[in-house]
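# nightly structure sweep
# worker-07 picked up a monomer target from the shared queue
# config: single-sequence mode, recycle default, output format = C-alpha cells
# input follows
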Amino acid sequence: MRTLFDMKNKLLSFLGICRRARKLVIGAEAAAESVTGGKSRLVLYASDFSRGSLKKLRAAAEANGVEVLMLPVTKEELSLALGRLSGALSVEDEGFAKKLREMIKSEQGGEFDENKG
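# output follows
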C-alpha cells in the first residue's frame, strides 16, 4: 500500500522534472501571466496558499478556461522540492498537465479542490 508520504514524494519529484523541462512557471504572479498569456494548461497551488491570492489566480484561470487544483503539499514542501519559495504554479505543457491531474486525482481518491477558496 502506498502512503501519503510516497505520493507526495512522487508528485514533488514529477514537478521537479517539469521544472527542469522548463514547463513549470513558479509564483502566483508569474502563473497568472502564464494563464492570461494563453500558455497555462493547469494551475496548481499549495494547501496553505493564501486565499486572497488564490481568488485572483482562480478568476484569471476561470476566465481563460484553465483548471485549478490544490496540491496535497504545503508551500514549504513545494519550495524545498523546487528550490524557490512559492505557493502557486502554472504547468505549460499538456502532457505534464495531464499526468499531474491523474496523479493528484487518483491519489486523493478522486477528491480534489476545484472550487475551494
